[in-house]
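Quick start: read one record
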Amino acid sequence: MARITASVYTSHIPAIGAALDLGKTHEPYWQPVFQGYEFSRQWLKDNRPDVIFLVYNDHATAFSLDMIPTFAIGTAAEFKPADEGWGARPVPTVIGHPELASHIAQSVIQQDFDLTIVNKMDVDHGLTVPLSLLCGQPQAWPCPVIPFAVNVVQYPVPSGQRCFNLGQAIRKAVESYDEPLNVQIWGTGGMSHQLQGPRAGLINKAFDTAFLDQLIADPAALAKKPHIDYVREAGSEGIELVMWLIARGAMADVAGGKPPRVAHRFYHVPASNTAVGHLILENS
């Protein structure tokens, strides 16, 4: 059967993608950010998966306010980088895994989660920046990627508990796939930030640090955190962190296995107008 071997968590800040694309990674402002991912780039080379299941949020590129699915799984053979208003990022086309994606959709829907099945869509910085942070600037991404888009833009958005439970359903789906694939699940977005209004520029290091601690040690309790706590403490865009709970819910310890090993943890302030958070957990 297929199995989830690790979960990866990272911010997906668009300015990070621009810094990479424009060759600014060694500038004093950006150097500390990219140094925090040096371990991770080598780790991914040493632990190359067969498939990455990547949880992210679309930023009004594939989906507009006319149609907003709560959970959408990409089942296409490929996904092109989106033009977000200044041209598509100069990164490779994302190759999908239609067979595993379709199987996950079937299994998760039969576990009573409603997914939108997307057979054609472009992917924006929410998906391509995490790949760039861990893969650099390759001619092709190292493995197929299944995009999984979550609505954390337009209320109502899914609860942390719903996302945590969904991660458990995804793990069951992966483990019922009849091929010995090594799958990693990535949760992206966050950490604390707010892009508009009187609190624009808000960063809450104490909240972010506590979130990382609890995500590692007690994700079931963290899943119960209400939306208002994210908004109050982490800013309006801090709600993106519920997507990390999907990845965490898919880890073995949630189903009675051993606690995961913390392979890497990184936090930095600031990058653009937000905090950068990053974590790698390995199943024992």
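The chain has one domain: 3-282.
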